[in-house]
Amino acid sequence: FSPLFALIHHPLSFLLVYQPGSLAPSRFFENWSGWTLLIVVNGMLGGFITSIILKFLSVIVKAYATSTEMVLSALLANFFFQQSLPSTLLLSMAFVIASIYVYNVEPKKDNSSS
């Protein structure tokens, strides 16, 4: 259902809001600031990094990378903006760090013979 919706919705939406001359290269970036460009480039680089991770590693590693990024974002927001961290967030951060550790620890090999 989703691809069919996209095939119908996107062209229809474009036709409803299109104004002649609005896609001219001189007008397309008309109201963009440096911050807007920085956000777009950041999103683009994030997409490239995600595709590289998924190509060479697993989805689990991507999930852990995303979780680690959220932990670091919370810690940096706390440091730079003096935002308090709720106890539930601290608990979830501890779970994320513990799960990353457990995932990366090599299991002990049992050398005893049965």
Describe the structure concisely for a colleague.
The chain has 114 residues and is mostly helical. It is built from five helices and no strands.
Describe the structure.
The protein has 114 residues and is mainly α. Helices cover 74% and strands 0% of the residues. The protein contains five helices and no strands. The protein has helices at residues 2-17, 25-28, 34-56, 59-81, 87-104. α4 packs antiparallel against α5.
| Order of helical and strand elements | HHHHH
Q: How many strands appear in the DSSP assignment?
A: 0
Could you state the oligomeric state of the chains shown?
Answer: single chain
Q: Considering DSSP H and I runs of 4 or more, what fraction of the residues is helical?
A: over 70%
Name the shape in a single word.
Answer: extended
Counted by DSSP, the helix tally is 5
Q: In angstroms, what is the radius of gyration?
A: 23 Å
Largest sheet: none
Mean pLDDT: 77
- In terms of DSSP E residues, the strand content is under 5%
Low-confidence stretches: none
**What distance lies between the first and last C-alpha atoms, to the nearest angstrom?**
55 Å
How would you classify the helix and strand content by structural class? mainly alpha
Could you name the key traits of this structure?
114 residues; 5 helices; 74% helix
Secondary structure layout:
Elements: H1 2-17, H2 25-28, H3 34-56, H4 59-81, H5 87-104
Helix pairs in contact: 4-5
